[in-house]
């Protein structure tokens, strides 16, 4: 898939811009929760909808077997996972891919507020996911709004 055909390309570019705004203002060294709150404020100031601490149920053979908690969901389209350690590593990518596998969300982004700002964009098409018929993450979020 070419750069211009990336799913949610405009949105992810906006999110990346906000990430650098937050990093440039705060730098490194704070707890992840501080960055999460600042990122939410900054994304909201750009008119983007943000859900924090998203419960991601894990299903196996039609039964719920556990939950993950994703850091953020922007515009009900892109999952964000924030890290405050020194840098991103493969386990962070695996974590985000598991979130994408467990939901109908297809695009996720990792952000590191470490010594240098880092980000990665990951995608997992719904056509590749093998799932029973678990409830939709978006349906779950919408039911909480009511």
H/I helix tally: 4
Radius of gyration equals 15 Å
Order of helices and strands: HHEEEHEEH
Secondary structure: number of strands: 5
> What is the domain tally?
1
Outline type: globular
Q: Report the end-to-end length measured between terminal Cα atoms.
A: 37 Å
CATH topology term:
Trna Endonuclease, Chain: A, domain 1
Q: Any idea of the CATH class?
A: Alpha Beta
Pick out the low-confidence regions: none
Architecture (CATH level 2) name:
3-Layer(aba) Sandwich
What does this structure look like?
This protein is an alpha+beta fold and 146 residues long. The chain has one domain: Trna Endonuclease, Chain: A, domain 1 (3-Layer(aba) Sandwich). The protein is built from four helices and five strands; from the N terminus they run ααβββαββα. The protein has helices at residues 9-26, 32-45, 90-102, 137-145; strands at 50-60, 63-74, 78-83, 107-113, 117-123. β4 and β5 (117-123) form a beta hairpin. α1 (9-26) crosses α2 (32-45). The termini are far apart.
């Amino acid at each position: 898939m070419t750069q211009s055909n990336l799913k949610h390309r405009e949105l992810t570019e906006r999110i990346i811009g906000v990430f650098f705004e937050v990093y440039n203002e705060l730098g490194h060294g704070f707890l992840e929760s501080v960055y999460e709150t600042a990122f939410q404020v900054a994304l909201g100031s750009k008119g983007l909808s943000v859900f924090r601490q998203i419960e991601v149920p894990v299903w196996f053979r039609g039964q719920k077997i556990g939950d993950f908690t994703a850091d953020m969901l922007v515009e009900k389209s892109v999952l964000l996972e924030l890290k405050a350690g020194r840098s991103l590593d493969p386990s962070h990518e695996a974590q985000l891919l598991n979130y994408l596998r467990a939901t109908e969300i297809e695009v996720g982004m990792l952000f590191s507020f470490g010594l240098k700002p880092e980000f990665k964009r990951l995608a997992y098409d719904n056509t590749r996911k093998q799932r029973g018929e678990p409830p939709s993450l978006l349906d779950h979020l919408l039911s909480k709004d009511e």
